[in-house]
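General statements about sequence and structure are easier to judge against a single worked case. Part of our work consisted of pairing the sequence of a single chain with a tokenised description of its backbone. The amino acid sequence and the backbone structure tokens for this protein are reproduced below.

***
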Amino acid sequence: MKKKILALFLTALMVMSLAACGGNASQGGDAPAAPAQNEPAAPADANEPAGEVYKVGICQLAPHPALDAATEGFIDALNEKLPGQVDIDPQNAAGDTPTCATIINGFVSGGVDLIMANATAPLQAAASATADIPVLGTSITEYGVALGIEGFTGTVGSNVSGTSDLAPLDQQAEMIKEWYPDAKTVGLIYCSAEPNSQYQVDNVQSYLESMGYTCTQYPFSDTNDMASVVQNAVDNSDVLYVPTDNTAANNTGIIDNICRGVKPVFAGEEGICGGCGVATLSISYYDIGYKTGEMAADILANGADITTMPIEYAPQFTKKYNPATCEALGLTAPEGYEAIVTE
């Protein structure tokens, strides 16, 4: 009996010894450890962006078809060039200049990577608010005028660049000559608070006077005196010209109510022409917005130096006419004009 118990004890002791040796081998002993099987990698999140996410703030001066199209083009370009890598915050100042400064200051304090300023007032606010964050403008007629740069040569040279909505002013003057070669007087209507509008009417006046027209400027300060100024221009002019002017663009109904069927209005851009004009030399605001978005992607993703980026312009211009206002005046569009399609 004692021998059986001793045998069982020795057997148990040998089993425990073998188990201990097996454990030492798996922890780096002489016996080779069994190869570990690789765990399958966790699947990547399909919604996770491929690279860094950039914060972009958009300040648009007012809701208007031309400015809306520029903003749309900008967003489309950024999303196409940097898919999943842009966090865009579009804000609209509803035509109020002080609100532009509030929006821009919010972008600066929020640490955005780039600001898009859609129209002159947001551009001026952004240029004043930051010298470090890249600022790209669009729907800006003339950057030298907007930013007070003497002898502007096409490159701002600071943290500001962008695209211009300026159609050739000499061709706009030629357009008036094409439609009304026998007219004598042209009234130039614009908002005196917009420096780019002053720039346009000064240049168009110079071209028109070289063609033999007598020109008079009719500036209004805001919507309060707009109707009376327009009426004065109608009473004393054969033809009227309205430049690319944000206040006029937001209030084409005032101009149209006074001028429809009475006096022809030639406009600096399609949105104004569609609201109250006869004809315009049109650009695509979507296209210049898209180009601005391409510039933004180059700055954000490729580190392009904005200080060396020249202002870009629309690649093409189209002669367009407004069928409704032409009908009211009994006019037939010259050959080569496209009809403006209004909703």
About this structure: The longest strand covers residues 54-60.
